[in-house]
Amino acid sequence: MFWLLFCVFFAACLGAGVTGGLFPPGPWYRGLNKPWFTPPDWVFPVTWMVLYVCIATAGARVAMLEGSGLALAFWALQIAFNGLWTPVFFGLRNIRLGMAVVGFLWLVVLCGMLALWQVDRIAGLLFVPYLVWVTIASALNAGVWWLNPEAARNPPPAGP
């Protein structure tokens, strides 16, 4: 049963991750000033794949356990906001709204991690690297906003 649940949770993760292919960074993002700590492009898909395995494993571990309702609600909410950030930031090119989305995602991941921990400590621990990565993503979004105030104030029209 665990592997079936894992596949369902992993499919949800991949669904959120597909937004990266639908809304790639493109020339607009490459033209922005970025913080000095911005990782190279190859780091993002590698990191997300590892995180998606951890996120799916956490969900699968608690799905059949009694008292997991709150943890699963936070799991569902975090994957929704995980999938929302890319279309907002890269699709709409809206740096400020992207900051709001990633800030809310950070809060939901933290609450999810704590709720998972209450049901299954390993599941809670599996969200720790996710929280670290969303913290980095939040700092990157904030840095892009800080370094590109005009682009943040006046998002260019979406397009190629």
How do the strands and helices of this protein lay out in sequence?
Elements: H1 2-17, H2 19-22, H3 26-30, H4 43-63, H5 69-91, H6 95-119, H7 121-126, H8 128-147, H9 149-153
Helix pairs in contact: 1-4, 1-5, 4-5, 5-6, 6-8
Give an overview of the whole structure.
The protein is mainly α and 160 residues long. It has a domain at 52-155. The chain contains nine helices and no strands. The chain has helices at 2-17, 19-22, 26-30, 43-63, 69-91, 95-119, 121-126, 128-147, 149-153. Helix 1 (2-17) runs antiparallel to helix 4 (43-63) and helix 1 (2-17) runs parallel beside helix 5. The longest helix is centred in the C-terminal third of the chain and has 25 residues, at 95-119. The protein is elongated and about 50 Å long. The protein starts with a helix and ends in a 7-residue tail after the last helix. The model has no long low-confidence stretch (mean pLDDT 95).
Strand content: under 5%
The biggest beta sheet, please?
A: none
Mind telling me the C-alpha Rg? 16 Å
The CA-CA distance between the termini, in Å, is: 44 Å
Structural class category: mainly alpha
The run of helices and strands is HHHHHHHHH
- Poorly predicted regions: none
Tell me which oligomeric state these chains represent: single chain
Give me the count of strands. 0
C-alpha geometry: elongated
Mean pLDDT: 95
Helix content: over 70%
Q: How many individual helices?
A: 9
